[in-house]
Design a protein that fits this description.
Strand order of the largest sheet: 2-1-3-6-7
Helix content: 40-55%
CATH class: Alpha Beta
Order of helices and strands: EHEHEEEHEEH
Structural class: alpha/beta
Number of domains: 1
Low-confidence stretches: 123-132
Strand content: 15-25%
Largest sheet: 5 strands, parallel
Mean pLDDT: 88
Distance between the termini: 25 Å
Length: 132
Amino acid sequence: MYKILVVDDEESIRFLYQEELTDEGYEVITAESGYRLVERIEEEGPDLVILDIKLAGYDGLDLLQEIRSRYYDLPVILCSAYEVFKRDIKTIAADAYVVKSSDLTQLKEMVRRALEGRTSLERGSDEDGGGV
């Protein structure tokens, strides 16, 4: 079972994502801020992170860069209520960018694709002797 870490400062969003993604068969853990996010990733070992861009007291794009510097192959999906952030060059480090909506169809599809891509990468490294 894949484990997903949802990072969002809005409780209702965390609850909605947790419910919907749990129904899809994922284990979902949540965080309400970017505080100690890298350490949390180390402790929890998620297979994917869903990261809000505008967190109270934290910049999600800066957190994305921090995640990428330590966990370059960990899929990260950026979520924001604001489409304007798509134009920020820092978003290129994310695996996907989803504009928040009450319809989670696009988010679920991006999660599925990101995790399928990760599985392919893991299989590829197993087949070629496991080295980078």
